[in-house]
Structures are given as structure tokens and as C-alpha cells.
Amino acid sequence: MALSDTAIRTAKPAEKPRKLADEKGMYLLIQPGGAKLWRLDYRFDSKRKTLALGSYPDTGLALAREKRDAARKLLAQDIDPAAQRKQDKHERKVSQENTFEAVARDWMKTKGKEWTAGYATKTRACLEHHALPSLGNKPITEITAPQLLTMLRVIEKRGTVDMAHRIQQHCGAVFRYAIATGLLSADPTPSLRGALSTVKTEHYAALTDPKDFADLLRSIDEYRGEVTTKIAMQLLAGTFQRTKEVRFAEWSQFDFDTALWRIPAEVMKMREAHLVPLSTQMLAHLKELQALTGGNRLLFPSSTNRNRPISENTVTYALARLGFKGRMTGHGFRSIASTILNEQGYRHDVIERQLAHAERNQVRAAYNRAEYLFERKAMMQEWGDYLDKLKAGAAVIQLRGEAA
Fold this sequence. Notes:
There is one protein chain. By secondary structure, the chain is of the alpha+beta class. Helix content is about 50%, strand content about 10%. The strands form two sheets. Strands 1-2-3-4 form a four-stranded antiparallel beta sheet. The chain has a three-stranded antiparallel beta sheet with strand order 5-6-7. The radius of gyration is 35 Å and the shape is rod-shaped. The relative contact order is 0.07.
């Protein structure tokens, strides 16, 4: 006979636990101390089991029967309700422990081993300032694309569209890390494709007329500021590497016998070691510099701290003092070299390798590093000779006898 609320409420405890049967395997277990506990007896895999359904009066008769029926539906699907409950509890625990912030910090700790200190600091600051305040305490499994977009739109409305895109990329990396570690099944960021404003690409200022470039080269040679700054600009012009790679250059990276500059992977933007052939002109500039800073680790140490490189604005300010403010940047030397070398017929792949642009095909990239070194050595010497001719006032000239 089924139980009633009155029978449950008035039931008294005995010296030993006693059961008041309801129906479909459910009963009320009354403990000697007065506790009234709902239980469901069932069989699974030929084993007798008991499932707790709550305690009375917190769990009333109607709610207890709902829980019983839900358990019986699982049994009909050949699912053990006790095991399912344990799994649900585990998932809730994992979800609560693995907030977006917890996963993001674990991602930064893991991936940070591959990053430079500067990039790690910037990435952490981006997430801490923009993403963690709104998403940090949410379980990563519960974050939806609309929630992510709401956070990004706030950043976008501040006028920092590029930052919104950067944060989206960082968040996507965190979600993919969660997938890889078994905490998440899907990344919500691809759903946001096209939802943010397009970033307007700003090109680095660079001279386009060879005559203007020649004026710049002569101005650099006549620079009356710090000699180290002058040679930094000459190294940028002669090797067209990135300003960061020049700023952080160390004497141990240079081999004067083989005329090679070996830039380690941790300095490179693409995290891949890079070989830079040096022309005789560059070797002469470096030997001049060696007399000034050869006793230091860095080629271009800061004047205030010899263990730190010159600032990223040193070359920019020097170019401005030479009269090229707004017309030329340190990065502009790369654009100039790429344009001239391509126009004069050098192989595109050789130029791209010298610029250390990424090669998507990893097998081909490894092959190209070896294949192009001989050609790059010849090209860089011809480039050094070309710069000398420009400075001497030559008209528009070919780097070599005829374009190849």
C-alpha cells in the first residue's frame, strides 16, 4: 500500500531501523534517532543496490517519487542511477574547480615555457585586465559564445578593436587548451567569426623612392648622436632584421669567421632560430662596435643599465632627429629591402627566408633553411654593395649585372 503524507508525518521511530514501504521499490527508512530517509532498492548487473533519494521533510513524498521515477528511467536505459549520480557529482566538482581563470593560468604556465618574458607579461596583462574580470570565475564548460561576445564588445566600444581581436585569440587558445586536457568538448570562439569590427591594418612608415633612401643612408652615416645608435640603424639597413632582434643581439651570436649572425629561437617572432649572412660592410660596422661594447653581453646595451638593451624607441627618435619623422621606422628597412629585392628579380623564397617570414610547410621550411643559405650570402653581399653605391650618389641601379 502506498504511503501518505499523514502516515509519514506521524510515523515514530523504534529501537531498530524500520522501513515503511511506498511502491516501486521505494521506502522510508526511519532511524532510531528519528531521521526519516528515502531509499530505493533496485538490481543492476544482477546485484542488489540501494539509492538514497533524500531525507524527510526536506524531500517530501511527491519529490521523492519524482526522484524514484527518474532513477527507474535510467535503469530502463541500462544505466546505473547510483553510478550516474556519482558521475554527475564529479562533473559538477570539475566544473566548479576549472573556472576560466584556473584554466587560463594553467595554459599560461604551460605555454609560457615557449614564450619570451615580454610576450608572457603582455599576454597575462591582457587576460587579467580584459577577460578575467567578467569570465574568470565562471566554469569554463558554461561559457557561451554570446557571453564571450558581450565581453569583447565592451573592449571594442572603447575604441581598441585590435585589443578585442587579441583577447578573442587568447581566449580561443585557452578553450583549445581545455579541450586538449579533457575539460571541454567545444571551443565557442569560432562562432564569433565576423562578429567584431575589422581591424584596420597600419603599415609601417617606409621610404619608397630610392633617392630618399639614399638620403637616409647618408644621414645615418653622418649621425652625430651615440655611435651605438648609428650602428644599430646601419645593422637594420644592412640586414633588414626586426628591431627587436637587433636590440637584443648578443656578441655570442656573431661568428666573424663564417660571417653569420645566429639568432636564437627565443628572440625570433616565429620562435625559430634564424641565420643572417653578413656582408663585408656589416662586418666592418660590427668590428667598430666591438671596440665600444665588446666587453658587454649585448651589442647595444642601455646607457643606464648595461644588462638591458636600448629601448624600442631609440631608433625611432634617432630617425626623427635625422628629419625622417613619420616617414621612416626601424621596421621600414624591411619593407624597403623586400620591395627593392623583389623588383630587381631575386627569388621570392630567398627574400622571404632572409626576412624570416614563416614557412607553413614544416618539411619545406627545414629544406629551405639549408637550400637558400648560399643564395642569401650572395644576395646580402650584393645588398651591401648596392647600399654603398646609393650613398655615393649613383642613379637607380641594379644590385647585380642583370636581374635574375
